[in-house]
């Protein structure tokens, strides 16, 4: 029996409706904004989100009460009879770290692994009967505790007789890189610096060749040096970034180890063509290595460092030096635990949760396409969503985003602002208002900007005004927190 013409018409109408609906859906979908170059690599993004990582300075200096050894130390001095790398990892976890970096060789040239290229190593000590390997124990303990591992190999070597012979020493150094990057599994970060004494033997380091070797051997590693290429020094050892801090620099303007570049490293460059964010290295004690007469910084100082590093678009690299028995001091672990607990107390609760968000505009408008870039994304607790305004909005009226807090919301004294840096760093200047009154202002934001207010406020509306000449700002979070330690410090 032939089909009814009415059935044909109904089917055709349904097909047309489906096509129109599908076309309409595609028409309404709004693509993300273009990135503002440069942008971070995936390993750089992962590194940035760690926020706090740990350094362990341990070696011959631990046994000679030195910071810079001479290179002439007898390997028999090295004997950490109670060494327990798992205890180090517990210290790192207490501080909230997810990556730990070991000084595998410092300037004295003594190697904490049994290198095949020198006798000046743990192989020549009585520790573990000459069969010990601090690097091996360190990496194994890190993995067992769910932490990623990194290594520091000092370019300046005061022991090796090849130092000063450009080709011979660079070959020696590169051979040791091969040992460390092929013998211990995945390494997440490797540390280079240009430190050397004023009267040190003249030596040209082949940094670019070394960097190429590192990337060849470890595809997902981040390389730290003054000049990156992945992570840069912040320009001081206090743990403080500049109040303006761009993740971008021009690497061509930086020479590793050269004096006079500290301010450039500290602040970055808004016109920089390279994404090389800063790492803030600082020790919890006055020295980098353990000394019996030193103690850890107080909690108030560690929190100040946190606000001026993590809170200024950096990662905090916090050093905890094990003692001559091979253990991190109990008092240092207690301070690290206190620090980690304080950070969790402050930022574990977001007092912006439950707020209604509105903004100067939303990319895609109100026709459904703007949902992916809505103002409410800044309070959803996710890293992968963000608010994006329209470009025209900023040119005409300026960009702003506002949170309307629930009635009787608790007071706060910390404002957290975060950019969606996967698409570049954009914010040049910003200011924060609570119920129309200014409470904070600053320049760059980047991954995270923290404003610690002198006193708690309990306003209903929090508005952030933004100047972003490099493109519409993309904010992934605006958070509000209460820091009880501010009030304790001012009592």
TrEMBL record:
Residues 76-341 form the Glycoside hydrolase family 29 N-terminal domain. The keyword Signal applies. One of its GO terms (biological process) is glycoside catabolic process. GO terms for molecular function: alpha-L-fucosidase activity. SUPFAM superfamilies: (Trans)glycosidases, Galactose-binding domain-like. Its main location: secreted. Residues 1-25 form the signal peptide. Keywords: Apoplast, Glycoprotein, Glycosidase, Hydrolase, Secreted, Signal. Its EC number is 3.2.1.51. It comes from the Eukaryota. One of its GO terms (cellular component) is apoplast. Pfam families: Alpha_L_fucos (PF01120). It is found in: Secreted, Extracellular space, Apoplast. PANTHER family: ALPHA-L-FUCOSIDASE, ALPHA-L-FUCOSIDASE-RELATED. Belongs to the glycosyl hydrolase 29 family. This is alpha-L-fucosidase. It comes from Dichanthelium oligosanthes.
């Amino acid at each position: 029996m032939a089909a009814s013409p009415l059935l044909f018409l109904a089917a055709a109408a349904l097909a047309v409706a489906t096509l129109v609906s599908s076309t309409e859906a595609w028409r309404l979908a709004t693509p993300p904004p273009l990135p503002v170059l440069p942008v971070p690599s995936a390993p750089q993004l992962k590194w940035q989100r760690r926020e706090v990582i740990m350094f362990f300075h341990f070696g011959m200096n631990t046994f000679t009460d030195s910071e810079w050894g001479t290179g002439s130390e007898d390997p028999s001095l090295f004997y950490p009879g109670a060494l327990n790398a798992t205890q180090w990892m517990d210290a790192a976890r207490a501080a909230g770290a997810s990556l730990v970096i070991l000084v595998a060789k410092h300037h004295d040239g003594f190697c904490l692994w049994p290198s095949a290229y020198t006798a000046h190593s743990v192989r020549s000590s009585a520790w573990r009967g000459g069969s010990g390997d601090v690097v091996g124990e360190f990496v194994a303990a890190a993995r067992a505790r769910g932490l990623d591992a990194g290594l520091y190999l000092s370019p300046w070597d005061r022991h090796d007789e090849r130092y000063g012979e450009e080709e011979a020493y660079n070959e020696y150094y590169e051979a040791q890189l091969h040992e460390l990057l092929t013998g211990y599994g995945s390494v997440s970060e490797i540390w280079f610096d240009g430190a050397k004494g004023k009267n040190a033997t003249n030596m040209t380091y082949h940094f670019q060749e070394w960097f190429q070797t590192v990337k060849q051997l470890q595809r997902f590693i981040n390389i730290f040096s003054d000049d990156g290429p992945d992570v840069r020094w912040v320009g001081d050892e206090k743990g403080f970034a500049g109040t303006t801090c761009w993740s971008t620099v021009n690497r061509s303007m930086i020479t590793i180890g050269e004096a006079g570049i500290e301010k450039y490293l500290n602040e970055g460059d808004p016109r920089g063509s390279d994404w090389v964010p800063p790492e803030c290295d600082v020790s919890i004690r006055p020295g980098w290595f353990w000394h019996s007469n030193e103690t850890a910084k107080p909690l108030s100082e560690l929190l100040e460092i946190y606000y001026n590093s993590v809170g200024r678009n950096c990662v905090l690299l916090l050093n905890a030096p094990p003692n001559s028995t091979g253990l991190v001091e109990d008092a240092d672990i207690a301070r690290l635990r206190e620090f980690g607990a304080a950070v969790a107390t402050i930022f574990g609760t977001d007092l912006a949760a439950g707020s209604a968000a509105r903004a100067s505009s939303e990319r895609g408008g109100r026709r459904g396409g703007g949902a992916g870039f809505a103002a409410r994304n800044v309070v959803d607790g996710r890293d992968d969503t963000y608010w994006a305004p329209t470009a025209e909005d900023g040119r005409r009226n300026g960009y702003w985003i506002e949170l309307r807090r629930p009635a009787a919301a608790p007071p706060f004294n910390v404002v957290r602002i975060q950019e969606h840096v996967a698409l570049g760093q954009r914010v040049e200047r910003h200011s924060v208002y609570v119920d129309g009154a200014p409470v904070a202002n600053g320049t760059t934001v980047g991954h995270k900007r923290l404003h610690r207010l002198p006193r708690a406020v309990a306003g209903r509306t929090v508005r952030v005004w933004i100047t972003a000449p490099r493109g519409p700002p993309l904010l992934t979070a605006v958070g509000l927190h209460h820091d009880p330690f501010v009030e304790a410090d001012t009592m």
